[in-house]
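ingest -> validate -> predict -> emit
validate: passed (alphabet ok, no gaps, 352 aa)
predict: started
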Amino acid sequence: MVCKFQRFTIYLPDIILESSNHNSIKGGEAMTNQMSMEKTRKIKEKFSYQKTKNGTVKKIIRNWQLYLFILPALVYFLIFCYGPMYGIQIAFKDFIATKGIWGSPWVGFKHFRNFFGIHSFKIIIKNTLSLSIYALLAGFPMPIILALLLNEVKSNKFKKLVQNVTYAPHFISTVVMVGMIILFLSPNGIVNKFLGLWGLEPILFLTKAHYFSHIYVWTGIWQNVGWSSIIYLAALAGIDPELHEAAIVDGATRMQRILHINIPGILPTMVILLILNAGGIMNVGFEKVFLMQNPLNLEVSEVISTYVYKVGLLDAKYSFSAAVGLFNTVINLILLITVNKIAKSVSDTYLW
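emit:
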């Protein structure tokens, strides 16, 4: 027993040592293999990156004429869109012109709190949203309807006439447009003259607050509906004519072809434009609102853009107006991302 015990005590450590050495060798080999694989992967990634980079440079050199055409637009956006972002910091400072942007004292979110605390904050936001949403709901379908109708017109002469008539108002400047609105809707204007033929009393349209949003939205639709329909006409022109031919053979009516071929064909374009329009829902055109504005309709016509103009330029509160403008931009960005995410989840058409 003693010998067995001794043998056991002698050989047991050898077995353990042998097993331990074997495991150590295996572990070392595995670690070496892992390091080798990691090194190989990094080399491949570096080579792939260099290859991609070289391929990109070659493509730019090969198509330098196209990039030359893009250059003016790129320079424009760099100077007028990205360059001014340097001044956004004054929204968080009490800007003093003599000290400059860097020398002005830092105040954090003071101007944002002041904007949220003014008595007219809710009214301004309400007016901005109501005008934008009204314009989106009423104006977005109109170019689509016009494009679908023009696409069904067989006479090229009549089609060109309608296009010229509907495109022309887009080139009228905002100042001239508002001047026309004021003349047409004045007490002695053409609209009140027409109402007088039916024995109705003249209506002071621009002094009645409840008429302001309707005048603003529908004159905007009249001015831009033709121009906005161009992109839908281009999308309709890209639909395969064989689809219509096959539908006619199957006995489909014109309305059925519009519903099942034309509208699905321009649906991606509609979704992209809807996303872009939703991203600018807080941007109400300053010029038109400001020119149509008067003390009698101010309660419904004061929007963020006109408020920023009055506070920032007329009252010289540059930091406060920058904070209001930044707030407006952030809300637009959030809306754009949200609508794009919704479009991505329910369809295959989205911006990114």
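The chain has two domains: 2-62, 109-346.
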